[in-house]
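Board notes (copied after class):
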Amino acid sequence: MSLVHFLVGITLLFSFQVVGATSITTLAEARASLVVPSYTAAERQTLADQAYLFISQLYVHRDIKIKDFGKKADPLNKLRAIKKYATHFSNEELHQRISGVFTQLHDLHTNYIAPKPLSCAATFIPLRFESVLDGEQSSVLVSAKLALQAQSIEGIEVGDQLLSINGKSVEKVLRRLGKISGGANPEAMRVRAIEMLSLRSLSTQKVPQEDSLVLKFQRKDQRIEKTVPWFAYRNLECEGINSKEEAPVSFRRSFNIFEDEFQKKYNRIFGNPRLVNKSSRWAAESILDEVFEVATINTKAGVVGYVQLKGFSWDNQNLDISTVVEGFRRVIENRLSNAIGLVIDVRGNPGGYIVFAEKVIQLFSHKEVEPTKVQMLANALNESIFLKSNGEDNRWSTAISTAMKANHKMIVPMTITPSSEANSLGQIWFRPVVVLTDASCFSACDLFAAGMQDNDAAVVIGVHKTTGAGGANVMEHRIFRQIMGDTHNPFETLPFSQNMRVSWRQSIRAGKNEGVLIEDAGVKSDIVVPLRPTDISGESKELMTAINDIIAGLQLNYKSGLTVRQGSSILLANGQEAKWTERIYGVDAIDLFLEKTKVSTVELKSSSSPEEVPFVIPGLNKDWSDQPVTLIGKKDGKQVFRVVRELTWRGD
């Protein structure tokens, strides 16, 4: 990675603050400054009380964590004990005890955020690692070197196998880190542990005990030893801002966010995994590059489209969900129209806006998409949060009230993404789709992979057995405090700008996996293609070969569709009867729907070649209006595509 890209990435580590002066030194030089501040007795009690309130009243995953990880994962007894003795603990001991309770939940959405200056800092070494399967044996290889502090890693090469760290085998180190990683399943624990070899975000992770790492590598028949110091990044501007000066947080944005903060920070420094080199991608830069990038890959069977979907959120404040979805759609229609298949690479995707993640699924689905549902604890505090945030009764507060009256622990599951929005665009792609995942695909990325699988829109190929398993909408303590206002607010201001995050609403899958929770389980890969050593340096040759074979094998299943047009609009003159043509292949009937009402059926002779088909909706004519029409293609009575056209009446 270039020095410029690294500096941009690490500057964005704390993008929620105004970034000014920063410091990058060795950890040895910074260690004296990276300490827990001195709390008063009252502040210690506040932290303990708020942690208990936060988890006992808002944490939606308590039951599943006890089921999957045993009684030791139950946080409440531990938090009660901390409350009881909070004023007797030292500053460091209190911080580590509360932090430990959150970590043992194995929930990357639920975090105890350290006080400043720790929350404004990170430690790193300028190496990225990747776990690969060499024969039947797992090994950890260097997969990238950063340009910053490059002198500290001279002599280390991409592809070197990491054997030990400070005299301990790398596997032993990974097992230890996995236990404190927060990962929700074995695959996620290992992946996060490997990332922690390179980066520790001190907002949620401990300062490394050692100032440097003695790394031993294997390179063919050669053993190499190198001592690499930990480096400390400090955002000095962040350290100087107190909680009263921090900008208000958007409840609407947070209400729709499913995201892993650590993975987002890691990607900003080290980047997402990629299937093709940067040089192979489309040269034209776009404001959407921070969200996705596009390339084509030449194979023996034909051209395969490639989209690296880096995340479902963005830093550019000029972007919104509609703009990004439309940009994504146009790329598929314009740049990849001749491709025989499509790979959507979401490895390392930390999540983001759930509506974005769920709205793009319809572009690849032959049927109406069922959005993911969520449920949450039914209690007075949650009801009050929704009443305060909306100013009046709403569907969420009503659902909570109804559940409480029925003495139910959870509300009846509801969607965040309206079904109308999840299906307003319709299908634009009629060829094989592969979603490429790993155990770092988390949160809204889990939801996207689940939606593609549950709605039969794609084959999920994973380099791991499952995704990261982050099945919740995450909310922050400071947001709840902001919502509840100045009177009767149970959320107290935390000392030293501290914060907490909680899994607030639990995700439930739809479609063919209806009712299955995403948390802990994740999205299981239809096909597992583990990374091999040859996938590390340069292009992912073995992984790409496996994907090509799968796309080629799926071709026979995709024999129906429409010729792709740019956009969905059919422009008609004011007063003109609804009349247009489509180029269609592989169906024997098409049903036309206005809203949910079928208005006609067009019978066809099924042809493998596109043929011009006229459509007319008698009596439908408007002025300066828009009217969506849904076309359901059928073959032998089975639905094979679902396309939405926007009839648009304008001018003469």
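Comment from the instructor: Residues 312 and 352 are 4 Å apart (CA to CA). Residues 561-649 form a domain with the Immunoglobulin-like fold (CATH 2.60.40.2470).
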